[in-house]
């Protein structure tokens, strides 16, 4: 939860990349949709059914009553995320605000609703209970020393470099050059450093999942509550088997600081496939900077 809510410090990282007519139809989902949204769908879906029905596939998910509690909880996470500071806010893009959806209301009348009509939950007539959030005060920690992490990085640097695109069929480690290693406090407040996995290709009907680790040890990979584990990519099967090409982004500014690696020239990225080994093609891994939202 800390990684999905706190590390995802920008709207794009939390909610996903913008999608407009003519764009790639799968520009990249945000942390809240990837996990816990997709992850919980997959956990609850039955593994012994053809397509992990009900929750584990798009076309049957709403047949399970937990679907509605799950999505209400995701709405709650959205409401919480906006209170965590660092300039967090909803998209202000007019294209997004004016996006329209059509429904039959409680009187069976056909109505049109815009996104801008649904952002303020108080205007919709509800608020969420104010409860304790233990994940907010328990940031991940590392069991590994900086010396061990550097040794593992040196081992990968001295080995044969990975060539992209690659089929992700086993644990794979790559060295990724940082575009800028020394940044002032103002620069860090302005831009989030982001690890970008681009050209992720797989079949839409495939359940695929892989984890991403930074400066970790393949022989003793960190757990989700440790700093080196930075996120998971998950796809909930849907459609009729067409290919999807998308992007996955993970914030690493706080990660590098916690690992005492903020001034390193590069990072060691380890990709760990769990489901769908061999079903995923990865185009490239790089680092870029994403502007944080203004605090004004």
Give a short account of the largest sheet: 4 strands, antiparallel
End-to-end distance: 27 Å
Query: What CATH architecture label applies?
Result: Orthogonal Bundle
Low-pLDDT windows of residues: none
Order of SSEs: HHHHHEEHEEHEEEEHEEE
Number of helical segments with 4 or more residues: 8
Mean pLDDT: 92
Q: State the helicity in percent bands.
A: 10-25%
Strand arrangement, major sheet: 4-9-6-7
Question: What is the general shape?
Answer: globular
Radius of gyration: 20 Å
- Structural class computed from helices and strand pairing: alpha+beta
- Per CATH, what is the topology? di-copper center containing domain from catechol oxidase
Proportion in β-strands: 25-35%
What oligomeric state do the depicted chains represent?
single chain
Number of domains: 1
Q: What is the CATH C-level name? A: Mainly Alpha
Family: Belongs to the tyrosinase family.
Domain Tyrosinase copper-binding: 64-75
Organism: Vigna unguiculata
GO molecular function: catechol oxidase activity; metal ion binding
Write out key terms for the chains shown:
296 residues; four-stranded antiparallel β-sheet; three-stranded antiparallel β-sheet
């Amino acid at each position: 939860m800390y990684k999905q809510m706190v590390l995802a410090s920008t709207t794009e990282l939390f909610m996903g990349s913008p999608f407009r007519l003519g764009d790639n139809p799968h520009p990249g989902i945000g942390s809240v949709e990837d996990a816990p949204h997709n992850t919980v769908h997959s956990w609850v879906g039955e593994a012994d059914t053809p397509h992990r029905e009900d929750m584990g596939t798009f076309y049957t998910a709403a047949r399970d009553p937990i679907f509605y509690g799950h999505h209400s909880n995701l709405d709650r996470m959205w409401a919480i995320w906006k209170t965590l500071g660092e300039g967090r806010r909803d998209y202000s893009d007019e294209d997004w605000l004016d996006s329209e959806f059509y429904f039959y209301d409680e009187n069976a009348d056909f109505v049109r609703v815009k996104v801008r009509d649904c952002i303020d939950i108080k205007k919709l007539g509800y608020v969420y209970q104010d409860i304790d959030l233990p994940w907010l005060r328990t940031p991940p920690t590392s069991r590994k020393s900086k010396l061990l992490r550097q040794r593992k990085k040196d081992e990968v640097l001295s080995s044969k470099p990975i060539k992209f695109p690659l089929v992700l069929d086993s644990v794979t480690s790559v060295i990724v050059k940082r575009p800028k290693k020394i940044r002032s406090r103002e620069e860090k407040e302005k831009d989030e450093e982001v690890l970008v996995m681009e050209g992720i290709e797989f079949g839409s009907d495939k359940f695929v999942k892989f984890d991403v680790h930074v400066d970790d040890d393949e022989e003793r990979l960190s757990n989700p509550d440790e700093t080196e584990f930075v996120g998971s990519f998950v796809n909930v099967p849907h459609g009729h088997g067409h290919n999807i090409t998308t992007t996955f982004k993970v914030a690493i500014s706080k990660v590098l600081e916690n690992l005492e690696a903020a001034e390193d020239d590069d990072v060691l990225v380890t990709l760990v496939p769990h489901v769908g080994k061999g079903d995923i093609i990865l185009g490239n891994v790089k680092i870029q900077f994403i502007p944080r939202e203004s605090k004004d």
